[in-house]
Amino acid sequence: MCPADTPLNPKNLSLLWASPDRAEEIAALHAQLFDPAWDASSITESIEHPASASFIAQVRDPRSLAGFIIGRIAADEAEILSIGVAPEWQRRGVGRQMVEGLVRAARRAEVKRLFLEVATDNTAAVALYKSLGFKKAGTRNGYYQRAGSEKADAVILALGL
Ligand SMILES: CC(C)(COP(=O)(O)OP(=O)(O)OC[C@H]1O[C@@H](n2cnc3c(N)ncnc32)[C@H](O)[C@@H]1OP(=O)(O)O)[C@@H](O)C(=O)NCCC(=O)NCCS
């Protein structure tokens, strides 16, 4: 772990294909960031799906999981199903690097558009996607059911590749 104001050294971060043997770790981070969270078997199912394009961001020294991105490619479209960065690694470019990694994989697969849904009030995620050039492609009212609270609206964002 390093203090939140320490700049991230790119040499200390690897973007790796997500593999099922990291599902427990990914699920633990997912549970820190989302409610309701995905359990390890849902994560395994997602990353073992034939259309999966999922990565982890791994800090080399000391070895730890900084983030994950779970995506899927189907024909000429791709979707980000979930993305998260460990709180101590947020705001240091990890989320951006993971989306850019998925974009590279999608381009190689001749994908034309990358989609995602994000809660309208998730300012950090909306800012990340907007900074990468995603544009609003629609809305879904009441899309997210949050634990113990009301439904939240989602915006659909798309990036032309
Ligand atoms: C959204 C999330 C993945 C962003 O990851 P991150 O590694 O912190 O983001 P980055 O450091 O790559 O940020 C890239 C850009 O996004 C924007 N951004 C990211 N976090 C932000 C925040 N908290 N407030 C405002 N802008 C933010 C900025 O433009 C930032 O560029 P800058 O730091 O040069 O200004 C992370 O906050 C997270 O895991 N949140 C909880 C889970 C979640 O909401 N996932 C998204 C579901 S769709």
UniProtKB/TrEMBL annotation:
Gene Ontology molecular functions: N-acetyltransferase activity
Keywords, alphabetical: Acyltransferase, Cytoplasm, Transferase
Gene3D superfamilies xrefs: 3.40.630.30
Region forming the signal peptide: none
Pfam families membership: Acetyltransf_1 (PF00583)
PANTHER family: ACETYLTRANSFERASE, ACETYLTRANSFERASE YPEA
Protein name as catalogued: Ribosomal-protein-alanine N-acetyltransferase
Species this chain originates from: Hyphomicrobium album
